[in-house]
Queue: 2 jobs
Job 1
Amino acid sequence: MNPLLEISFRVPFDKIGAADVEPAIDELLVRAQRKLEETTVSKDPLMALDTMTENLDYAMAVVRHLESVATTPELRAAYNAVQPKVSAFYSGLVLNEALWNAVKAYAATDEARALTGTMKRYLTKTVDSFKRHGADLDPAGKARLKEIDVALAEVTTKFSENVLDATNAWELVLTDEARLAGLPPSAVAAAKASAEAKGVEGWRFTLQGPSYLAVMTYLDDASVREQVWRAFNLRGAAEPFNNRPLIAKILELRQEKARLLGFRDFADLVLDDRMAHKGERAQTFLGDLRKKTEKRFREENAELEAFAGRALEPWDIGYYAEKQRLALYDFDEEELRPYFSLDRVVAGMFEIFGRVLGIVVTEEQGVPVWNGAVKTYRIEDSGSFYADWFPRENKRGGAWMDSLLPRLGLICGNLTPPVDGKPALLTHREVETIFHEFGHLLHHLLSRVEVRSLSGTSVAWDFVELPSQIMENWCWERESLDLFARHYETGELIPAELFEKMKRAKTFRAANGQMRQLGFGYVDLALHREWQAEAGDPVEWSRPILQQFAAARLPDNYAMITGFTHLFASPVAYGAGYYSYKWAEVLDADAFTRFKREGVFSAATGRDYREKILSKGDSEDPAELYRSFMGRDPDPNALLERAGLD
Ligand SMILES: [Zn+2]
């Protein structure tokens, strides 16, 4: 029997092979198609819709997960073979006319009109989703929408290829060692290795993240920094990788799509089912934060120029900021590592949220796993989860939470592994990552919503990071750190002086960091709300906007947005959604003020948080959930205070 065909809470990871994938998914697609046909003639299509793809979801989640953490060439090939079929099935649902008719017919019944609470919201969201996918358009409108979607997929793919090709096409090879002055040995070695790999003499620099950042942060020779900075900000700005006409095309297509579906602009279309709801609301939000950040931003820039003793160019900022940071704080993050051994951190985290949220976590033995390093746990009354913390060659990078079943989830990371017989010693950032992913996991496992598609983390995009980011706050409180941060050899707590340094370094040039994010958010909304074809080249048009958020004067050919993959590398991507980064930070900083005020271990506040936010999934409008917990709308002041900008 194929182990992927039936849902099993004890996922038989030890029995699933690459050869099982295609036959199982093909069979489950046939079954889902049959259920779809039943749903279209059902009197209550809503609940049928909610459970229609349960088995397929489960099997795909398991396969996708294995592909992420224990891939083999065979598994990857099998996954790539089924993935397009499965996504075509899912994306076909909102375009299925028979299904739409069934939903509409149901929505018109007295029974549907009498729905309340979660079921009412589920119906409204389902109807809205069909409409946003063009269900109500006439045949000509539907045909045009299809053309737009095809064109958007093509143009955005080309955009992303251009960025990749432009990035890879550029290199700078230095042969005079004196010009490398300032670079740390690791960056010099990497540049040497890069040159050797290309069969050239000297040191090779590229526009890839690590190479670019090392040059901008450390390299003394300003003329080299200038060359690299200019090249980076001109990626995709000229032939043969010219993204300028593509950006205009993408913006026009998105605009046309929004109008066709009855929205003012693309921002209003995208934000329709997000917490902000309207582009204007997101714009006001950014404007408010900007007003509160600008003064400190100008001061920071003046301080940096005073420190450098001269007017600064854009390619000087990162370099002098690093020098200033060292002069001011003398803080090396590595000093914290001995206090963060993985086992203590995880045990401390369970202890903290045992107190705050009332959860009881116990390790489980004998559960089948995909690798011997994986641990398994149970949360009393709430399900089970896997934790897989260390890098492996057959595992993808980054950290993430995923769900396999409503009461079954997993958290994965690529943390510093143990070496030389010592325990795994983490950076503070890695500790935050563990807390962050555990927050997503609790959002999933502590969900108490009866509709599957509205449960757990299936919430608006600008709300989903609240339950994860709020957890990171407990990594900055003396009281909670003292529960688990102990020197792995001596058992001593983090010394007061080191704790103070760590707190102060966090707020270094915070206004610049914030203005940078606000600038990207501004330009994103401006392009998707205000730009029109008559305005001409969007690159020229958006430069003065970005200038208002830059620490130094930008050159006249500055073209950062031609490499802005967040906005343009896929049909929606972060388009009109860049503001979400700051939005989520405001939510988590603000919501945490209740814990600050009522006690970071307060079980009463924790119970309230669990009841009003964590357990609710998407069963109510997130703005309502937030208000029910805080008694008011989000207030950005907590974020400003946390960043030292108040
Ligand atoms: Zn997250």
Note: The first helix runs from residue 18 to 40.
Job 2
Amino acid sequence: MNIPKTSLPRVVIIGGGFAGMALARKILKEDMQMVLLDRHNYHTFQPLLYQVSTSGLEPDSIAYPLRKITRSSEKCFFRLAEVKSISAEENTVHTNIGDLVYDYLVIATGSKTNFFGNESIEKHGIWMKTVPQALNIRSLILENLEQATITDDPEKRKSLLNFVLVGAGPTGVELSGAIAELRNHIVPRDYPDLDPNEMNIHLLEGLDRVLPPMSEHASEKAHEMLEELGVKIHLNTMVESYDGHLVETNTDLAIKTETFIWSAGVTGAPVKGLNASAIVEKANRYEVNAFNQVNGYENIFAIGDIALMQTEEFPKGHPMVAQPAIQQGKHLAKNIKRLIRGEKLEAFEYFDKGTMATVGRNRAVVDLHKWKFSGFFAWFVWMFVHLWFLVGFRNRTVTFFNWIYNYINYDKAARLIIRPFKGHEERMSLDKEKV
Ligand SMILES: Cc1cc2nc3c(=O)[nH]c(=O)nc-3n(C[C@H](O)[C@H](O)[C@H](O)COP(=O)(O)OP(=O)(O)OC[C@H]3O[C@@H](n4cnc5c(N)ncnc54)[C@H](O)[C@@H]3O)c2cc1C
């Protein structure tokens, strides 16, 4: 791997997501050698992936080069590497570019899409965890609109213009709202040969409300806003299969569609090699103590989505969202410094800053402890918070001006089919990691 030998303690971090990056930034200047490994050479700001999928933003606005973090210290290194397994007895990680010995290992590999064992969905569906996947969705939506303009088969056109999203959590809600806006503002101008009323956006949810992790107030408001935008919501509806053309559910509902987007859940993305007792099987996440140490190991830590820390308030672990990941990353940085100095570790405490989701232009819902609000002000807060947390000054600036442009012009400038979506076979070869 071409990492120089050192007498300093070596900290190896797997994953440059929210957790890994927060940790890396805090230990850059410390007396240790830090090696950051990721299968991508950039950090992905997942909360805005849906804007890439729906042509609102270019991918480089929400991605940040990981070498920009490590370059500020001679003791820090980034390697583009897929970690395959860990040998804890030898303190070694095995990757596709070689092996690396660590003193302290931090696993921050996040989560992957959960298909709940449904093979037809995994085989024919499309999902969104990475930038290439978001670009696949963008291409698929635009290609289907192009196809719909030229087909003279009304059944085929219907299927091309039906967009089905499964899972009404924040991703499903944000994505369906954004596709509805595409239908309401872009399709009438760009595709004069199409009748926008023929384009249907269906949002399917197994539970009895949209945004189940948020308050009842947020659910009701988001439901109203989605309906205002023309999204057809089907609650208490579980998808049973999708064969690439037809979605079948546990109710009478069956929809013909060429676009089936699965956003119904995630599960942990652990690395092979640790003892079975380190993993909480149901969640596929590492069981960690209050110091983020993985169960059974003193020098292996897990942070972010992949870590399950049981507390009184969160008996099933912290929510798999960005804030616990960032806070755990920052906290572990302090604990690793303490460990190296031979001091006592301090327990992690999560500070819940609230949750929010946007449904579209001027529409969002925010739960801030006792304060629950929606509409234009919530949307403004949502934009401010996302700009604030977006990594890098350039990304913030580009996104800010893009949003102003889109707002004034009712436009989505990035509606380009740069890398055509060629269907299942190609997608699987592009998304090797299947996250
Ligand atoms: C579409 C979408 C929308 C979201 N919206 C929101 C939102 O609005 N608000 C919110 O708070 N949260 C949101 N989340 C959740 C949030 O993004 C995650 O909770 C957060 O990213 C978790 O951070 P992490 O560092 O644990 O993992 P990640 O950010 O997923 O980072 C994991 C990193 O590890 C790397 N990696 C994984 N396995 C390996 C391996 N074997 N070898 C090398 N590298 C590896 C990956 O490439 C990745 O860079 C959203 C998630 C998605 C997918």
Note: The longest strand covers residues 33-38.
